[in-house]
Design a protein that fits this description.
The complex is a heterodimer of chains A (about 260) and B (about 375).
Chain A (H helix, E strand, L loop, with lengths): L5 E10 L2 E11 L4 E6 L5 H8 L7 E6 L2 E3 L4 H7 L1 E4 L11 H5 L6 E4 L2 E4 L1 H14 L16 H14 L4 E5 L7 H16 L3 E6 L2 H7 L2 E6 L2 E7 L5 H8 L5 H8 L4
Parallel strand pairs in A: 3-10, 3-11, 6-9, 9-10
Antiparallel strand pairs in A: 1-2, 1-4, 4-5, 7-8, 11-12
Chain B lengths: L15 H6 L4 H17 L8 H26 L7 H18 L4 H26 L3 H24 L3 E2 L2 H5 L5 H5 L1 E2 L1 H9 L20 E2 H19 L1 H11 L1 H6 L4 H27 L2 E2 L6 H11 L11 H20 L6 H25 L3
Antiparallel strand pairs in B: 1-4, 2-3
Helix pairs in contact in B: 2-15, 3-10, 3-11, 3-13, 3-14, 3-15, 4-5, 4-6, 4-13, 4-14, 5-6, 5-13, 10-11, 10-13, 11-13, 14-15
Classes of the chains: A alpha/beta (about 260), B mainly alpha (about 375).
């Protein structure tokens, strides 16, 4: 495999007296799906916020495409090609898919010296990109509100990819979805990965991670418990690591292995 | 994994009727047709549809349209302005104070009034954006503040609440006709000569058409509607207006300068109110402290009849203009039809209720909520 596109080295993040991250190292390669697992409060959110430029690390460095990076704010990260698809999607239900797709990045055309929103281009691109992701819209003017949760995630992912994301951070994209929608989103992740984009998939669901992940890093109480390659680790082991090897044992029987 | 089917079997075929229903202008179009049909049937002989009658309700509608365009864009961007009516009174009074009391050239008075009022609009927006308070409260405060000044200023300096003499002061000014003038006189003279529209039969103006031109008020209304519609539907900024009103947080996450959009929309609303006020004082020749009373609500009602959602993020300038047209036609039409004018308010209340219920239903269709 080639060089990692982004390396997070020994990242520490302190909030006052709270140590949210105590030396976390993760590297992500282009075209891989790197799953970041951890229970609530493990530091997943802090970690990806550091990666996407929202937080500055207290210690440690970020190396992006071979160069040390120091993001001043999230816009720098987006401009560099690190896109985050949040749990709370940047989608507006009342607006059409194509208006949402290009929100903040509207294509312009000049007519008589004035700039106008190029609806033809926006509609065409939106339909194309959505078709690539396996979603057939009724039309580009269909409101986002009529899409299912999974389809909305897919629109958000397609948008990030279209606008040149090299690293795509997905913050618990499947946590609020039903079974079918989840499988749709996982299929989308697979498509994105095959385009050579590095995907960082945050989840606390081991089965979702196992379905698409190439490598798995488990966070627990602000520390990494190591990175495992697909095939070297069983879901049960991952589950145990996430829970810190505690209480889960007693529940094992009744839960039937995984949660 | 997910199979990629061409269509989702759970999505029912959407009927063309429901498709049409989600266009924001639909209510406005249906209402306009209904209103015209009604008055054509019951008040056709009353003079409502001769040249004077048409001009009469067109002017009233145009007045509503001017403030409705501003209120519409502001509502789509997710805010309200309850100070529109007070702003109209205040702007008119400023024209009178600068142009008549201080006797400055009228064009300077007009420009300064526009600057002051737009700045006040921006201040409204700035306070709303900065404090995060509902615009309802902030602009309600400005409703009283501006109305108070509009009464206080002329009383203190002139000891009266109406300042006249604006027409004389505007005589020969180059900017005043842009608001108080008329266009198309030769066309109307020709129409009068051809006998298509009515002419004066006797008196000093015998032979001249009764309607001798289109007031600039109507031109302003059309210009603002076209500007607002193009801005909203055909530009990047229009997309930002929808986004700011639809979900401000999501819009910010996508890089839309939400605060800037909202402040600019407040400024534009104040601009529209000032256009209204200047046209009005040029027509009346005086500024009164009670001008523009309740106009803010009429503007909002016109916008809601036009299909905009009170919660923002959805609406249409064309719809708002049609709402204003319905408004003007009914208000004047009831007069022509000889119906007691107080019933107009009953009509207003009823149609407002209907419009809001319809809009809520439409919103559910669009967003798929239940």
């Amino acid at each position: 495999m080639s060089d990692p596109i982004i390396q997070m080295k020994n990242i520490e993040k302190h909030f006052g007296s709270v140590i949210a991250l105590a030396g976390v190292s993760v590297d992500v390669f282009p075209g891989e799906c790197h799953c970041l697992l951890g229970d609530n409060g493990a530091g997943k959110s802090t970690f990806i916020k550091t990666m996407s430029g929202v937080h500055k690390p207290t210690h440690g460095e970020i190396i992006f495409e071979g160069r040390p990076l120091d993001f001043a704010d999230p816009r720098d990260a987006i401009a560099a090609g690190i896109a985050t698809v949040h749990q709370h999607l940047a989608m507006i239900p009342l607006m059409s898919v194509s208006r949402n797709f290009f929100m903040g990045n509207e294509p312009l055309k000049k007519v008589a010296g004035l700039s106008f929103f190029d609806h033809d281009y926006a509609n065409r691109v939106t339909m194309e990109e959505m078709r690539k992701m396996g979603i057939n819209l009724r039309g580009p003017d269909q409101a986002v509100g009529t899409l299912s949760g999974g389809e909305r995630q897919t629109v958000a992912i397609a948008r990030a990819v279209h606008f040149g994301a090299k690293v795509l951070i997905l913050d618990e994209p499947t946590s609020a979805l039903g079974v079918r929608q989840t499988s749709n989103v996982l299929a989308t992740i697979d498509k994105v990965r095959k385009q050579g984009i590095a995907v960082v998939f945050i989840t606390h669901n081991v089965r979702h991670a196992m379905a698409v992940g190439d490598r798995f890093t488990v966070l627990n109480r602000g520390q990494t418990l190591g990175t495992a390659v697909r095939g070297d680790i069983t879901p049960e082991e991952l589950q145990d690591m996430m829970a810190g090897g505690q209480e889960m044992a007693t529940l094992e029987g009744s839960l039937g292995g995984t949660v | 994994m997910a199979e990629s089917t061409d269509t989702d079997e759970r999505i029912k075929e959407v009927s063309p009727f429901r498709q049409a229903l989600i266009r924001p202008e639909l209510g406005g179009i249906v209402g306009t047709v209904a209103v015209f049909t009604l008055f054509a049937l019951f008040a056709f002989d009353s003079g409502m549809f001769n040249s004077q009658g048409v001009l009469n309700w067109t002017i009233v509608s145009a007045q509503f349209m001017i403030i409705a365009v501003g209120a519409c864009l502001l509502m789509i961007s997710g805010e309200f302005d309850l100070s529109v009516g007070s702003m109209i009174g205040f702007a008119g009074m400023m024209i009178a104070v600068f142009g008549v009391v201080l006797a400055w050239p009228m064009w300077i008075a007009i420009i300064i009034t526009f600057v002051i009022c737009c700045a006040l609009g921006a201040l409204n927006g700035f306070i709303v954006v900065r404090t995060g308070l509902p615009s309802f409260i902030v602009t309600l405060a400005f409703l009283f503040i501006l109305r108070g000044f509009t009464i206080y200023i002329p009383q203190t300096i002139e000891r009266k609440t109406i300042i006249g003499g604006i027409r004389d002061a505007a005589e020969g000014d180059w900017l005043a006709p842009v608001f108080g003038g008329k266009i198309g006189q030769p066309l109307f003279q020709w129409l009068g000569d051809m006998g298509i529209i009515g002419v004066f039969e006797r008196g000093t103006r015998a032979g001249q058409p009764v309607v001798d031109g289109i007031p600039m008020l109507i031109v302003w209304a059309l210009v603002l509607i076209i500007f607002g519609h193009v801005l909203l539907t055909r530009t990047r900024f229009g997309n930002w207006i929808f986004a700011s009103g639809g979900d401000a947080e999501a819009a910010r996450n996508s890089g839309v300068p939400v605060n800037k959009v909202k402040i600019l929309m407040f400024t534009f609303t104040a601009f529209c109110a000032t256009v209204f006020a200047v046209c009005q004082v040029m027509e009346f020749g005086s500024a009164g402290a009670d001008r523009g009373l309740l106009k803010e609500f009429e503007a909002i009602i016109a916008v809601v009849i036009g299909g905009a959602l009170l919660t923002g993020g959805y609406g249409s300038v064309i719809g708002a203009a049609l709402g204003a047209l319905i408004f003007g036609v009914v208000q004047q039409g009831l007069f022509f039809a000889g119906v007691e004018s107080s019933l107009f308010r009953v009509f207003l209340g009823v149609i407002l209720l209907f419009a809001v219920i319809l809009n809520t239903y439409i919103r559910r269709i669009i967003t798929g909520e239940r």
